[in-house]
Specification:
169 residues; alpha+beta; Aminopeptidase; 5 helices; 7 strands; 30% strand; globular
C-alpha cells in the first residue's frame, strides 16, 4: 500500500467509495447529501489530501482517503471555548473502502495526516459523531482526547452530540 497526494482524477472513485461505505458506517450522517458528494470529499477549507492505494496488477486501486483542513469560524470558536490553544489543523474526510476495513489503512492515513499537521507546527484536532463507533475507537486507541461536545446545525435531532477531539503532544 502507498499513500500519495490526492489527484483530481481520484475524486470520482472517492465519491463511489463514500457511497459504498455510507450504509455500514453511517458517514456522512446525512444521506443522501443535500449537495454533490464531490463537495463533501473536496472541501473549501481543505489544505491537503491523500489517498491510499495498491496496485492489483491491473493498475492502482483506491483504498482510502484523508484530508487536512483549516479550522476557522465557528469550528475554531468551539475549540477555543474548550480551551484548545495554538495553531490548529483538522483531520477530515477519513474513509476506507468497506472491502478493506480492518487492515490498518485508516490508521496509516490518520498517522500521515497527523504527521503533516505536526510538521507544520500545528495541533491536530477533529470532530466525530459517537455513533461512528469504528472511527471513535480508532481515535481513542491513538490517544485522541475529547474536549467538548457540540450540536452542529446539520446534526439530526435524534443523534447524540458531536465530539471535538484533540491529539495531545
Amino acid at each position: 500500500m502507498t499513500i500519495r497526494e490526492r489527484r483530481p482524477t481520484d475524486v470520482p472513485g472517492l465519491v463511489e467509495m463514500l457511497t459504498l461505505q455510507q450504509p455500514t458506517s453511517g458517514y456522512p450522517m446525512r444521506w443522501p447529501l443535500p449537495f454533490p458528494a464531490e463537495q463533501f470529499v473536496v472541501r473549501p477549507a481543505e489544505e491537503r489530501a491523500w489517498v491510499a492505494e495498491r496496485d492489483d496488477g491491473a493498475g492502482p486501486v483506491l483504498l482510502g482517503h484523508v484530508a487536512v483542513s483549516r479550522v476557522e469560524g465557528e469550528g475554531l470558536a468551539e475549540f477555543r471555548a474548550a480551551g484548545v490553544e495554538g495553531r490548529l489543523a483538522a483531520v477530515s474526510v477519513l474513509l476506507v473502502d468497506p472491502a478493506c476495513r480492518g487492515h490498518g489503512i485508516g490508521g496509516r492515513l490518520l498517522e500521515h495526516a497527523v504527521a503533516a499537521i505536526r510538521a507544520d507546527g500545528r495541533r491536530p484536532v477533529l470532530d466525530v459523531a459517537p455513533v461512528h463507533a469504528a472511527a471513535l475507537a480508532l481515535y481513542r486507541r491513538r490517544g485522541w482526547q475529547e474536549v467538548r461536545r457540540i450540536r452542529p446545525p446539520w446534526l439530526p435531532a435524534h443523534q447524540p452530540d458531536v465530539w471535538l477531539m484533540v491529539l495531545p503532544d
